[in-house]
Fold:
Amino acid sequence: MESGTDKNKNPPDGADQGAGQRMLKKEAPIVAFCGPGRKTAPADAAYTAPMEAWIMTLLQMLSLPEYGLSTLFVVAFISATLLPLGSEPAVFGLIKLNPELFWPAILVATAGNTLGGLVSWAMGRAAHQLVDREGDQATHTKALDWLERFGPRACLLSWLPVVGDPLCAVAGWLKFPALPCALYMALGKFLRYLGMTWGLLWAMG
Structure:
């Protein structure tokens, strides 16, 4: 005759299977998240969903001519500051949806991007004035001295990725005149939008 203790030590097979299934259910989320073959982690969806919604909203606004140019101006303006946002996809998307807005889109994007660059220029100038007021002398490095030799013409390179936007702030830091800086910024940014948009339209046929 089996004792009660033996029964506790040797539970029925059905109980073993039930316990195993419960353990697998608890471990399943960890495997799905950490396993080498996982497709999408639950945390990824939290980040991709807002971005996809923002892109869809942007495309919907760009598809409307009455809102497309104003939306493009805002995107181009923000992307010219130190924020990590590119305006080229918005320009291309608007022109692809509304081919008749080719030149207006190029000009509006150039204007917005140039004004955003001037904001960075003003921030750099204000920062230099603050340093001069708080310290005994202005701060200079070899890179700043090298750019200073080029003067406002250095702003012609403000269209470059990564370094272009900080370059506008450096121009303000070096106290380059605002009007020549704005003209060189506008020229460089206009040629960038024109060249990239034409190239994408030609590549996508």
Q: What stands out?
A: The two ends are 86 Å apart (CA to CA). DSSP finds nine helices and no strands in the chain.
